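JOB MANIFEST
job_type = single_chain_structure
chain_count = 1
residues = 162
[input]
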Amino acid sequence: MKLKEAKIFKDTSNKLTFVNYNPDTDDYFNFIAEQYNKRQLNQVIITSNIMIILIFSLVDKYKFCLERVEFMNDDDTLDNEIQNLVNNINNEENFIFLLHKLLLLSYEQSIDILKIHLKKRYEHKSTQIKIQANGIFFIDKSNFDKYSQKILDIVSDSKVYY
């Protein structure tokens, strides 16, 4: 499944937008500078708090399944613990426990989420979303238009990126 990539920015009025990004042809740092210089767009970084809000919203409201959570620091024990929790999200109680654990890791241990992976299957079709802390998100091409704006809306509604 081929994924389309885009990067989240905010304009001078703090409205969020995204710009398509292709790592094969765009140098990341030049891409960021170009968006600022040509369009006065500032990059948006997705904090762990926003990641947790994205997880909650995409799972609860849009019925995605959380597949994986990656962290900034390499800790196999932590990775395994969280992946076990992710694999056992079979009811609301386990889901809330996972979100609570992610919040505690973020607040108490300053462990940041690097990337989240989500998937949704319906009518024999699949949608895949990945969101990175640097504001780049990946969505399969056939569903990009449908879910890219939903991601922007969730981040915008979180009001914690200012």
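[summary]
The mean pLDDT is 92.
Strands lie at 3-10, 16-20, 42-43, 65-71, 113-122, 125-132, 136-140.
exit_status = 0
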